[in-house]
Amino acid sequence: MLHYTKVFSCHQKEWLVFLHGLGGKSTLFYKQADFFSKHYNLVFIDLPGHGDSTGLPAKYYEATQIVPKITEVLDKLKISSAHFLTFSVGTIIGNELMLQASHYIRTMTLAGPVLKFNSWSKFLIQSAWQLRSLAPYMVFYKIFAYLIMPKNSHAKSRFYFVREAANLGRKEFIKWTYLLKNANKPYEQLKQQPTTIPMLYLIGKEDHLFLVEAKKAAASNPYATLHIIDECGHVCVIEKSAACNEAVHTFIQHNNLYKKASSL
User: Fold this and answer.
1) How many CB atoms are closer than 10 A to CB 73?
2) 53-62, 101-110, 162-171, 229-238 — which is least confidently predicted?
């Protein structure tokens, strides 16, 4: 089972589950913990090979393999449904969750959503894959960090990315690189299999790699909302944490009110 941290404050509060990005761990959401614990019961999950979670016995990872491990945690905690806040590569798992296990999901927030890569990022991921047994994996990770977060204002986010990825290790990095190569699969499948789950695409205005596709995704889905944060790059949950927290909380509360009104 994956390692998780539970913040339980009230039986009557709803659950909010957090899924981090590649190379990080659940402590990425340290700026969300205090705010959201006032409103929800929280579960922070370390993805396979990250933080205190061991890797899965698989040669390479696919999103379909990760979802049962997430639901295993939910079942253990007797959580029948929850809101989800996913970030970066965690949004790939979020999309797969909506495909495989929609009954667990009340709302889905995709922060810094990884939907499709442009030609440069595809080339870098493919290079990392082709040279996986030769070049040090941190070389590719550092280049990728600069590609996603190129501005001086993104320096803190780049530092966090690189520091945490050093703990991932080559073996796990290779497994996750395979998943990255196929990052768009859950997203494309969702477009063919529409869902009524309320979705929030939460993205920084300077998240140049993923902003265009996030706009397209939100525009094509009547159940999706787009929230763009000014002067913010990819790691919006750190760079503009207060704005992110408020946007997610407002989104969840709006959908709760909508559901209550619809049931009258």
Assistant:
1) 17
2) 162-171
